[in-house]
Design a protein that fits this description.
- It is a single chain.
- Helices cover 37% and strands 27% of the residues.
- The protein is an alpha/beta fold.
- It has two domains: 2-140, no CATH class; 142-257 and 338-420, Rossmann fold (3-Layer(aba) Sandwich), CATH 3.40.50.410.
- It has a six-stranded mixed β-sheet with strand order 6-5-4-7-15-16, sandwiched between helices.
- Helix 3 packs parallel to helix 8 (402-420).
- It is elongated.
- The model has no long low-confidence stretch (mean pLDDT 89).
Length: 423
């Protein structure tokens, strides 16, 4: 009797163990199923987030073309980044809308959703599908930008005079004619503000850059162009909390070789530009208003014409160290580089600091100098604490590829600027 009771007890225990194992196995399968289906949901969520972010950025970048075009391009971007798979119950949906903030700046709002079939959880009536959602918002900040364009004489012989106008025209159409403010400055032996900074800039800049075709002559007064660009950008006030990006785009095909100071004209201090050469020792003196050459010093002892009122000038005060230096091409060019770099640094250290992008055309540019101007990471003087720009080069000039390459270079800079405008 006791033996029978013991055997029966063991059988009961075995039955309980089998039942417990069955329950545990079922629960474990449910957790595994949940883990697998949730894993697929996370994968879909990541894919959806990528597509939503891409759509948001695309819409922002194309706002200058109008909201309808921007929305359509954003939808195309979303569909291109979200590849429908067998997991999807139905194709994903995306909704794109536009609004404005308190500063009148455009907000791009993107909402995406996807519904996917479950593999294991579908045995439960309420878990046959999972829904995942994602959203993104970008503020299209205000751009304050000055274009600084070289119109020196060498541009007439290296393809730059032909390639520059269409490249600039395409470039400015990437930006918002109603909300951005843009100026155009050009320089040769002098500098001029061709289009003062302001709204509705596309037509004036298009006309101004096309009019440059007959004006390519003289030296390279880059420091003056940068100084004017700083003043133009500084004239636009930034409201507290406003998302504003200030930019300077500096384009040249050669070295800076001209500076500006007051020189003695028959004993009277008079403002002149002087320099203008990339080789030799000579220095020209230019009218700062018209850029006309008034006299030439051979860099040693002689002025032409010998009757010029500055005939007694043989030295100038260097901005590098405040000392008097011999008036020759090498010293003037060194001072021009120094002054340009000082102005660029002053732009970046303002609040907000300006981003500088430099473009070099042809093979005669000083690439190291342009990298320093932009605070490009490739520069030997790169400072990560200052706004980081970029130097880009169109080296296929002169050639049949010059215009196409310069277009691409300006588009590269446009993309960088548009990215900066997104919060």
């Amino acid at each position: 009797m006791r033996l029978f009771s013991r055997n029966r007890s063991r059988e009961n225990e075995r039955g309980q163990v089998v039942l417990l194992v069955a329950v545990c196995f079922t629960v474990m399968l449910l957790f595994m199923a949940l883990a697998i289906d949730v894993g697929f949901a996370y994968v879909t969520k990541a894919k959806l987030s990528k597509a939503v972010d891409a759509a948001c950025l695309t819409a922002m970048r194309n706002l200058a073309q109008g909201q309808t075009i921007a929305r359509n391009l954003a939808i195309n971007s979303f569909n291109g980044n979200y590849k429908v798979s067998g997991l999807d119950q139905v194709p994903p949906t995306v909704a794109i809308s536009f609004s404005t903030d308190s500063y009148g700046q455009t907000l791009v709002n993107v909402n995406g959703a996807a519904t996917l079939r479950t593999f294991f959880m579908r045995i439960l009536p309420n878990y046959q599908t999972f829904s995942v959602k994602d959203s993104a918002q970008a503020t299209r900040g205000k751009l304050v930008m000055s274009l600084v364009l070289d119109r020196s004489g060498s541009m007439a012989s290296n393809g730059g005079s032909t390639a520059l106008p269409p490249a600039v025209t395409t470039f400015i159409n990437y930006f918002d004619n109603n909300n951005d403010e843009v100026a155009m400055i050009s320089f040769a032996s002098n500098e001029t503000i061709d289009v003062p900074i302001g709204y509705n800039f596309i037509t004036p800049i298009t006309n101004a850059v096309n009019a440059m075709k007959s004006k390519f002559s003289g030296g390279t007064f880059g420091p003056g162009g940068l100084t004017d660009a700083k003043a133009q950008n500084d004239s636009v006030a930034v409201l507290p909390g406003q998302n504003t990006v200030k930019v300077v785009v500096y384009f040249t095909d050669g070295y800076v070789n001209t500076i500006q100071d007051k020189l003695s004209c028959s004993g009277t201090l008079t403002l002149y530009n002087y320099g203008g050469y990339d080789s030799g020792s000579s220095v020209d003196v230019f009218d700062p208003t018209t850029g006309t050459s008034l006299a030439t010093y051979d860099g040693v002892s002689s002025w032409t014409p010998s009757t010029t009122c500055v005939r007694n000038v043989t030295k100038f005060t260097s901005a590098i160290n405040g000392q008097l230096k011999s008036l020759n091409r090498i010293n003037v060019t060194a001072d021009a580089k120094y002054r340009a770099l000082q102005t660029a640094t002053a732009m970046r250290t303002e609040n907000p600091g300006m981003y500088i992008y430099s473009i070099g055309l042809g093979t005669n540019v000083d690439q190291a100098f342009l990298q320093q101007i932009a605070n490009d990471p490739a520069s030997s003087t790169y400072d990560p604490t200052q706004p980081v720009g970029q130097a880009v080069f169109a080296t296929n000039c002169p050639s049949s590829q010059c215009s196409a390459q310069l277009q691409q270079v300006f588009q590269t800079i446009a993309a960088k600027i548009l990215l900066r405008l997104t919060q």
